[in-house]
Amino acid sequence: MVALIMLLVLPVLAQSQDSSFGNWLLYIGNKKLNEKWNIHNEVQYRNYNALGDLEQLLLRTGLGYTFNEGKNNVLLGYGYILSENYVGNTNQKVTVNEHRIFQQFTDAQSIGNVKINHRYRFEQRFIERDFKMRFRYFLALNIPLGKENSKYYMSVYNELFLNTQTSIFDRNRLYGGIGYNINNNIRLEAGYMNQFFETTSRDQFNIVTFINF
After folding, report:
1. Residue 119, SS3?
2. What's the pLDDT tens digit per position in 56-85?
3. CA 176 from chain center: how many Å?
4. What is the CATH number of the domain that holds 147?
5. What total of structural domains would you count in the chain?
6. What is the extent of the structural domain holding 48?
């Protein structure tokens, strides 16, 4: 199903190089070392358009500790972000390298069969010769679709980004998508995301693979 959506949508997105409708391909993995400790790993390939117009390559990893019967996790992580930013309204790009250290706390809850996840993340960002800090709050819902034990689900989330310096508001991401549980360890997801900045906004089509191993 996810692959079918991808095949139907990407040709439309690729029709115009001037389109503001971007595409993100994401892999999010989690390796359990034991009942308490885990390693997070993540790769995001972000495009301005359908494919081939790189916006960002994001690599992220971290060491986490789970407690409270698996409901909570604290994690210390590192990220490397390679950005290809357009210069004004031209076709020229400038390459920006960022190294990022972050700390996060997640809280898993449920109401009936609906799973709720809160994530609080604090980032220290080393962007070339600049240094910035940012707070992020992520709220996600995972809603099963169909009959009991259905492999399909709806995913909805909102994430707010706040800088520690002016301007305080950085961006907001609102997402809705459909997912499929291949098995207990692997799931695929495809959906639409609106990213709202202080004065502009962008729309994106995201394809996500989640793997626990």
Report:
1. strand
2. 999 999 999 999 999 999 999 999 999 999
3. 12
4. 2.40.160.40
5. 1
6. 2-212
